[in-house]
């Protein structure tokens, strides 16, 4: 049992917790709150629980699904479009299937703890046999905590049950840093050869992904003014996802080198677009990559109608389109390029992150290299130093 006085949101409140029943009442001043606290405490001690009854009809408490949908609507002001889409997906896939039907007041710390353990073990309704990484569980917990913190500010719940739950984030059934998949050099060549033969309209786009390691959204947002053919450099300064253009990931523009082959292919593409525009009396497009009809390339459509069929025709096992980015990094590292150069090309925030993701791809030295660290004494610690014996003999004579 407890009756507490606390200042909250610029006002003084009484918070009552009596055998699981909770009430909160706003008071005019600290003195009024303290007097009311003493009276309520005395009444509860005598078993008079009428003070816990609210004469007003209790407002309907929204479910987590209802409140989260409203929360996402207000999130358009506070969050970047990509972040908003990510939060929406996390709620839909990881949180709402289990907690969505529950009223906000029915969500307890034990409820949140159970959800965390279910995600870690792969027992969620959405993916019953597929555990998720620790990073994904951490993101889901952060999103849930943000939603419930807003509900707490709105006075719908007394406290946020998801706050400070990080200690329950143990290693999950999935690896925190999974072994990334890549294409072998010969597979990349076969993939691009097949694209040039069977999907020539998309060959420049695929070559750009393979030769620059750009994220899909960054390549989709490229414009001709981003190209410096003389210096063979591409300026990556925006990203497009679901027809929404924003800053690149990490919010920083970067310069990406063009290979000689890519520069030639993109130069020819630019010349072709300008010639077609001149013949039709139209203005040449600003966008570098488009569909054959001249429309923006849509991620889902491209994966289903180009990427999947391309892999089948090239007789390659299916891997995600993002694998081209991983392959770009692995080929550079295998060629002995400095880690910081790979980090700059990929647009990672630090070389340490690049090392975490791709460190296992760094070329390993020969085992004989460590053998050179051994000296004669370590190789045979029982051996006697002949020079020391001869010196001792000379001294005795």
Would you give an account of this structure?
- With 397 residues, the protein is mainly alpha-helical.
- The chain has 3 domains: 2-52; 64-168, Orthogonal Bundle (DNA polymerase, domain 1); 185-360, Orthogonal Bundle (hpI Integrase, Chain A), CATH 1.10.443.10.
- 49% of the residues lie in helices and 10% in strands.
- The protein contains 16 helices and 8 strands.
- It has helices at 30-45, 64-78, 81-99, 109-121, 134-153, 185-198, 203-212, 216-220, 260-280, 299-313, 323-334, 339-346, 351-358, 368-371, 376-379, 386-396, and strands at 2-8, 11-18, 21-27, 227-228, 233-236, 239-241, 244-246, 254-257.
- A hairpin with a 4-residue loop joins β4 (227-228) and β5 (233-236).
- It starts with a strand and ends with a helix.
- Residues 124-129 and 171-177 have low confidence and may be disordered.
Features:
397 residues; mainly alpha; DNA polymerase, domain 1; hpI Integrase, Chain A; 3 domains; 3-stranded antiparallel β-sheet; elongated
Report the span from N to C terminus: 95 Å
Overall shape: it is elongated
- What is the annotated CATH architecture of the largest domain? Orthogonal Bundle
- Average pLDDT over all residues: 82
CATH superfamily of the largest domain: Intergrase catalytic core
Secondary structure tally: strands: 8
The fold-level CATH name of the largest domain is hpI Integrase, Chain A
Helix percentage:
40-55%
Radius of gyration, taken over Cα atoms and rounded to an integer in Å: 32 Å
How many distinct folded domains?
3
CATH class type of the largest domain? Mainly Alpha
Strand content: 5-15%
> What is the spatial order of strands in the main beta sheet?
1-2-3
Number of helices: 16
- Sequence stretches where pLDDT stays below 50 over 5 or more residues: 124-129, 171-177
Main β-sheet, in a few words? 3 strands, antiparallel
Structural class: mainly alpha
